[in-house]
TrEMBL record, chain A:
Keywords: Cell membrane, Membrane, Transmembrane, Transmembrane helix, Transport. This is ABC transporter permease. It comes from Winogradskya consettensis. Residues 1-23 are annotated as: Disordered. One of its GO terms (biological process) is transmembrane transport. It is a multi-pass membrane protein. It holds the Pfam family BPD_transp_1. Belongs to the binding-protein-dependent transport system permease family. One of its GO terms (cellular component) is plasma membrane. The chain crosses the membrane at residues 29-51, 98-117, 129-151, 163-182, 205-230, 266-289. InterPro entries: MetI-like (IPR000515), MetI-like_sf (IPR035906). It is found in: Cell membrane. Residues 94-289 form the ABC transmembrane type-1 domain.
From TrEMBL, chain B:
This is Sugar ABC transporter substrate-binding protein. Keywords: Signal, Transport. Belongs to the bacterial solute-binding protein 1 family. Transmembrane segments: none annotated. The lineage of its organism: Bacteria, Bacillati, Actinomycetota, Actinomycetes, Micromonosporales.
Automatic annotation (TrEMBL), chain C:
The keyword Membrane applies. CDD domains: TM_PBP2. It comes from Winogradskya consettensis. This is ABC transporter permease. Its main location: membrane. PROSITE patterns: ABC_TM1 (PS50928). The chain crosses the membrane at residues 17-38, 74-94, 106-129, 156-181, 210-230, 264-285. GO terms for cellular component: plasma membrane. Belongs to the binding-protein-dependent transport system permease family.
Amino acid sequence: MTTMVTAPERTGTHKSPLTPRKPRNRKSVVLTLVTGIALIYSLIPLVWLLINSTKTQDGLASSFGLWFDDGHFALWDNIRETLTYNDGIFVRWLGNTLFYVIVGAGGATFLAVLAGYGLAKFDFPGKKGVFAIVIGAVAVPGTALAVPTFLMFSKMGLTNTPWAVIIPSLITPFGLYLMWTFTEQAIPTEIIEAARVDGAGEFRIFFRLAVPLLAPGIVTVLLFSMVATWNNYFLPLIMLKDPDWYPLTVGLNAWNAQAQTAGGDVVFNLVITGSMLTILPLLAAFLLLQRYWQSGLAAGSVKE
Amino acid sequence: MTTFTRRRLLGLAALATATTLTLAACGGGDDDSSSGTSGTTVSDADVTAALQKGGNLTVWAWEPTLKQVVANFQKTYPNVKINLVNAGTGNDQYTALQNAFAAGSGIPDVAQIEYYALPQFALGKSITDLNQMGASSLKADFSPGPWASVQSGSGTFGLPMDSGPMAMFYNKDVFDKYKITVPTTWTEFLDAARKLHAADPKAYIANDTGDAGFVTSLIWQAGGKPYQVDGTNVTINLNDAGSQEFVKVWQALISEKLLAPISSWSDQWYQGLGNGSIATLNTGAWMPANFTSGAPAGSGKWRVAALPQWTAGGTASAENGGSSLAIPEKSSNKALAYGFLKYANDGDGVQTRVDNGAFPATVKQLDSAAFLNTEFKYFGGQKANEIFAASSKNVTPGWSYLPFQVYANSIFNDSVGKAYVSSTPLADGLKAWQDQSAAYGKEQGFTVK
Amino acid sequence: MADIAVPRRRSWTGWRFVGPFMAVFALVFLAPIVYSIYLSLFKNRLIGGNSFVGLDNYQQALTDPNFWSSVGRVSIFLVVQVPIMLFIALLVALAIDSGRLYGKSFFRISIFLPYAVPAVVATLMWGFIYGTQFGLVGNINDAFNITLPDPLSPSLILTSIGNIVTWEFVGYNMLIFYSALRTIPTTLYESAEIDGAGELRIIRSIKLPAIRGALVIATIFSIIGSFQLFNEPSILQNVAPNAITTYFTPNLYAYSLSFSGQQYNYSATVAIVMGVITMVIAYVVQLRGTKES
């Protein structure tokens, strides 16, 4: 690997003189169109969501799902009503969700990166057992564990507190494995050895050397755990009874359930608009994080 | 079976729990609550004192009109602070309750429980027998259907909050358009279904994808008594005369594809109610509020009529839905909780709830002129409460649900549901439901016949 | 996988990195499982209370037709849906990584987005799309005067669920593959191009081997995901109550037993048995996946 450093300058020219460093980047219309099928498949539901968030409850029931309700454009009204319905509880739920995501997903990513690195770059007693134990535990269906977990947490006095939501979301077994394989791939053991020879401590090597190299992997794990925490429904539903601690998912479901209640206020329009608003922060996070998806070693500052 | 025997059984259960293990008591939670409190009596004076003294109450309920009741209650009794929590609708809340009972903490002081689910909690002794507080004296205040629904064994386990005497809601525009007369019997209903669907293949007399509560209500109306409960002895027979009546008509509706395959409470359902493709809805008297907010497009088009009859000229009715407020055995302030129950379900709270669109279970409101004369804009100015009130007086007596109806209803679509989507006869579906319910009952230690 | 890393020396240092994860893991995963195993040895009834029954629950599970029909259903699902989903995800990841798409970041984010849609909206949305009355299927039927098969009928429901899962997770898996592709040092490609290797050749000899680890992990977690199928069927249960039984998948079965039936003990048993089955299969895949390297 270390012998290829000077390659790029020499190779580019015979394919595309204008972009010497990235000879492979010739755009293809055909490939774009073919991949476009997957794109449309993915986007239809979002289009549905966008269109329907412009409708009133009446319009939702009386107009075609994939087109606008003639003459009624209620998006701004819906947004206003979503934010103010039930004394603005939506805003409170949004704040809760942000809190759970920052602490939960942030913590989960940190633990996963740390442990993935440890598994990839160290040999220690019990290492082989870790894989078996984690896979084995993840293989047990989670819904059946909900009641035992509830009873345990209840004994520890954690139910109906934010901790009951945060602590379980600190674990992402999938993130652990992802970081494990990424670390093996992206960080040559030689550079760690070299740093050790220079006298750097293990955690200094980890934070200064490994973390920058692992950026694409870390971002991926962070994004996954953010979405997972953001959409976490089942656990908060069981653990929380106080609507003041609800995350958005549980709150929106409660609104949705009003339509199934005798005498309930039917607010599908708010559920839909609320869901659309829920996706926006995730979208923003994605856009902010995506610049870290550059090739690890090539983008890093490491001298090979 | 007498209370004594049941209590003895439960005592044994508690003993078994205590000796064999510590943690697993969490598994069921219904067995360790029989200790201590039984025999405690709370007098009216105690309740009044508790209301004056005040304190905190946690109330789990999803009924929307309670919000205003709580506000008014706190104004009347300024020392009481009520924390009204929507812990989920129906089954979600029962799950939360069971979990809280099992954990022994986080238990509310008052919980909303639907009639069909009440026997299960009563049997588990996880809720209080309100006769200890003199609830039996309130009998005359409530209409007989709901009152019977809160009785279990010799106890009263909740105060009725609302009721759902059944009626037929129908879309008059659709009926007029196809010159269909409003059916008064289920046979006429079947004919109307045929006529309507032939005239407009996109219109159906009703939607139905199989709903346990609806089926049991119609069997109830037909005079069937498929569930007989005597303590822990349970008889299940979904092939009695009443059930057979129901099967005859409904089998024809299903086989001839006269029912819209739309599940109740879905957004499509509200759409169908609004746009005329679902022409009738046979359900409880609590429905008007949902019509108004969920299907505004149907306003002015719908009317209310008495539920079609199994025998021409009859007046029989049944209850569909409705719920009570109950007090968990582990509530820390039962006297205060009972004070709230009486206020909300038998006192000033009732009128507040009626004013906000709820359907009462109390005789006083059901008989009041103001109530009966209310004109419903959604129903073209019709005085619909007259029909509902009449229905509530004609509810067929003697019905009872299983002490494990929550579970039985949850597996309804596994068995009976097949009849709605395949060639399985409805009667076979009911038989399978009966067998599976019985098997569960036996599992749980009941004697099932 | 565990042995690829060059071990420096065997020491406890690694635990300083793995320890925090494992500590929380023990609390939120291992402890409830141990508790479940304990619960699975008892039987609690409404009448008669709690009693120790040894392995009776396991015996019951092994001969429970509902349980095995649910296992069969998710097995079919696994064999058909997982390969399709991973294949599409891989193709899209390679297409985006090739740098030959117009608007590549738009593709990247759009295809990932379904994963971010909350379940409550998914219910409303798929209810609309699959609806034969007022839904998209109904509209297509009306427009072309045809009768499409009902996607919510018992015979098609598994396919319809497969479609939802694919829709949701193509982007998820795509991102895993894509980010793994991004960790490949660009110098590798450049040297390949000196040798005159074409795109397909580069994919075969550089990209695929380099993301093997990610492929194995994605496969294992897709297997686990299939065996634990729960959200999508429970979402569609609202609109197709008769096609999706309470024992449609093992996880749904465990849920109904526990939440509707208060059969915590038997539910725990079903979960443990299912966990063992899943673990064995995942382990075999993991062994095979790493052996070939």
